[in-house]
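Q: what sequence does this backbone want?
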């Protein structure tokens, strides 16, 4: 008859004890995270657009929030001087994988929709408008389903005046305005750049905003920036292959270690005059 040797359990028990203690401590730490249970939904047009706010998405994830990232288009026209990709289905497949990689590195829940880059604008009203309408309804359904506390998207400048950026921002705004959502989502924020941090006057008109509107200035850490950089590097087809962390830092340089946002503010009271 075989007698079991239980001595390994004796050896394991301090380890088990340590594990229990570790789990207990980890739970203790988690409960200290300030945004545990909170949900952010960030919506942008193209795979890589999320890079603009990625450091603060990393920050809020570190602080306990869950971040859902909606990328609306397939990026099929994302050709550039760094690579010789051709526009079309192969590039769509590449960017799908790149976006998946970027989302994993950042730690977000990804919703990569399959609307065409440039939202079929080349097909005129009958191509573009049904495509854009479908997108608004799908964004509505996602927000109903996810029930985020906060929405973040492009403002009217779209960062670069790109029509897809502006339309995604406007579509999220329309979804937000379409009914009283109560608490989920409670707030809508637009990414913005203070005019005084933009050197040339033309760019300042095209995408700058007065500081009095960009009142939400969210800081992030080096650790958050590293995470954002590692995520951004996944978009290999869109970047200079030699881009370093310092290059990216320089590119964001004027904003410092901050992301500026404009909160959508609803009227506080009814009125019967436009001159109130
Ligand atoms: Zn874009």
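A:
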């Amino acid at each position: 008859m075989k007698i079991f040797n239980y001595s390994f359990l004796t050896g394991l028990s301090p380890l088990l004890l340590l594990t229990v203690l570790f789990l207990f401590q980890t739970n203790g730490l988690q409960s200290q995270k300030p945004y545990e249970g909170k949900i952010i939904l960030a919506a942008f047009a193209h795979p890589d657009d999320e890079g603009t706010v990625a450091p603060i998405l990393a920050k809020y994830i570190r602080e306990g929030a869950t971040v859902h990232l909606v990328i609306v288009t397939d990026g099929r026209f994302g050709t550039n001087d760094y690579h010789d990709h051709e526009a079309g289905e192969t590039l769509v497949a590449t960017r799908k994988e790149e976006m998946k990689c970027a989302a994993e590195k950042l730690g977000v829940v990804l919703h990569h929709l399959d609307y065409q880059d440039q939202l079929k604008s080349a097909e005129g009203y009958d191509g573009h408008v049904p495509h854009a309408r479908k997108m608004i309804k799908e964004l509505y359904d996602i927000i109903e389903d996810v029930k985020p506390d906060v929405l973040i998207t492009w403002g009217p400048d779209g960062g670069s005046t790109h029509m897809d950026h502006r339309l995604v921002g406007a579509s999220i705004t329309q979804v937000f305005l379409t009914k009283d959502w109560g608490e989920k989502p409670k707030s809508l924020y637009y990414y913005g750049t203070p005019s005084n941090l933009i050197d040339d006057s033309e760019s300042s008109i095209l995408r700058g905003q007065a500081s009095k509107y960009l009142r939400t200035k969210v800081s992030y850490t080096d650790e958050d920036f590293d995470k954002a950089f590692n995520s951004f590097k996944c978009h290999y087809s869109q970047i200079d292959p030699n881009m370093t962390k310092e290059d990216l830092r320089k590119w964001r340089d004027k904003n410092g270690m901050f992301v500026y946002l404009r909160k959508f503010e609803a009227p506080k009271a009814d009125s019967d005059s436009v001159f109130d």
